[in-house]
């Protein structure tokens, strides 16, 4: 069976129009955060969520050293926040100087505009190829019952802050 065409696969995945998330991490004095399109609930009992971060992204390095991650589904009206965390790189700017956030447990940044968010320890990692999956076991949840997601179809228009 022939290998699938990468461009065709990327285009097909893009049509799924998944909710976009911003992942934040802290390790020592380092903070990182990026927009991600590959994520999924993994278990209800125990509660677990799997999020994939590009290995070319600076946040990947911070997340690898972090004890916990925060996951922020991006609200529909926060395109500017998605642009900041998806279109800029932490190698060049401090994204956290350009948005409102509070330190959470272990120093993990919690973005104020993302009213639906959850965070917890990393309990496993999966090599996904050009991305690494981080299995998070949330121990904190802040919910916004009126949440409407910023979807991946809109995120495709953001030029990545790092090389794809």
List the helices and strands and how they pair.
Layout lengths: L5 H9 L6 E7 L2 E7 L2 E6 L2 E8 L3 H8 L2 E6 L5 H9 L13 E3 L5 E3 L5 E11 L3 E6 L3 E3 L9 H4 L9
Antiparallel strand pairs: 1-2, 1-5, 3-4, 4-9, 5-8, 6-7, 8-9, 8-10
How would you characterize this protein structure?
With 164 residues, the protein is α+β, with helices and mostly antiparallel strands. The protein is built from 4 helices and 10 strands; from the N terminus they run αββββαβαβββββα. The longest helix is centred in the first third of the chain and has 9 residues. It starts with 5 loop residues before the first helix and ends in a 9-residue tail after the last helix. The model has no long low-confidence stretch (mean pLDDT 90).
Unreliable segments of 5+ consecutive residues: none
Series of H and E elements:
HEEEEHEHEEEEEH
- Number of separate strands: 10
Total helix count? 4
TL;DR of this structure?
With 164 residues, this protein is of the alpha+beta class. It has helices spanning 6-14, 58-65, 79-87, 152-155; strands at 21-27, 30-36, 39-44, 47-54, 68-73, 101-103, 109-111, 117-127, 131-136, 140-142.
Can you give keywords for this protein?
4 helices, eight-stranded antiparallel beta sheet, alpha+beta, 164 residues, Pnp Oxidase, Chain A, single chain, two-stranded antiparallel sheet
